[in-house]
Amino acid sequence: MNENIKKRIEDYIKKNEVCLFMKGTPEIPQCGFSLAVSNMLKHLNVNFIGVNVLEDPDIREGIKEYSDWPTIPQLYVKNEFIGGCDIVKEMFEKGELQNKLKEKKISYK
To answer: Which pLDDT value is given to residue 1?
Structure first.
């Protein structure tokens, strides 16, 4: 992966406590999986940034290589890769996502 792309990805992850690489935006998700993760974060009232990979093919391919994870969306909490839609959904349903947010001192409701 090109160093410039890697640095841009790392900047998003480091500068935002909760960062969701997604298709579309939190306001207008462009796929069901991105919508689902975005809605879980909104439901918990978590302050997060959505990075629209559809606007940037380099980030779209780069994030898959960066995380060694083949699909989008991808959720990061305080520099830690949490997972994609299925993992986040399962964690949310079991209360593990809320525990992770608490452990990382991220406010939620």
So the answer is: 85
Sign of CA dihedral 8, 30, 90, 45: positive
In this prediction the pTM is 0.97
Q: What is the pLDDT of residues 37-73, one digit of tens each?
A: 999 999 999 999 999 999 999 999 999 999 999 999 9
Q: Tell me the domains of the chain and their CATH numbers.
A: 3-103 (3.40.30.10)
